[in-house]
Write the structure tokens for this entry.
Amino acid sequence: MSPKNLRKIKEEIICPPKIGEIVEGKIVASEPNALFLDLGFQGIGIIYGRAFYEAKDILKNLKIGDKLSAKITSLENENGYRELSPKEASEELNWEELRHKKEKGESLEVKISGANKGGLLAQIMGVPAFLPTSQLAPEHYPRVEGGDALKIVKELQKFIGQKLKVKIFAFNQREEKIILSEKASKMEKIKETLKNYKTGDVVEGKITGITSFGLFLKFDKDNLEGLVHASEMPGKISKDLSNLKIDQKVKAKIIEISDDRIYLSLKL
């Protein structure tokens, strides 16, 4: 017996397999409702019953000789096989990959599948994900007068079917929830662009949103956006915003850059 095989046997004795462990095996036999995996010195594993039907999408294109990862759910059944679940292993490996993506701050693309008054719905690796309205990029934020919930949902529904670039903001594996942020995926670019501006600069841009508390102004080729609070508008305008229109060009002065946000004033 080779030293490599002896080492494997020692590892098996010292660290025997346990329930919940993810193992990899080679498919050696199949039946209409079962699949058998050679786990090496860990014996033969079987996928059958509920575990087989739950993993049909994973198993449908596999053949004899293919390798497969699965989680041990029983160390030995009445026939001496280790019972396995590919679906549970796949889910755990997916969560591990999601954890790495969050830790690395990776950006990923998601397709929006639904919307509610709180934000947008999507899926990542089969896990439900939620993109709160507060985490949308400025250009996608719904500017609705009075915060009417029905109007907000109508605006958000426009994104269904679209793909957005996001980062994982937070997640809870136990509750199977993922929170996304589109804003975070653009933050590095925004920070870099903001270096070109300072307090006191006068900029020209287009009005992108008008609310009771002020207006949003987009400027710069990189679509930077700032807020002009009503208190930073000339008296006549602040009392009657009806004279302002979406896409209207105006000039404003940068009065503050804080937490990567730009605050403007029309009081030039």
Notes: The longest strand covers residues 22-31. The radius of gyration is 28 Å. The chain has three domains: 3-87, 105-185, 188-265. Residues 3-87 form a domain with the OB fold (Dihydrolipoamide Acetyltransferase, E2P) fold (CATH 2.40.50.140).
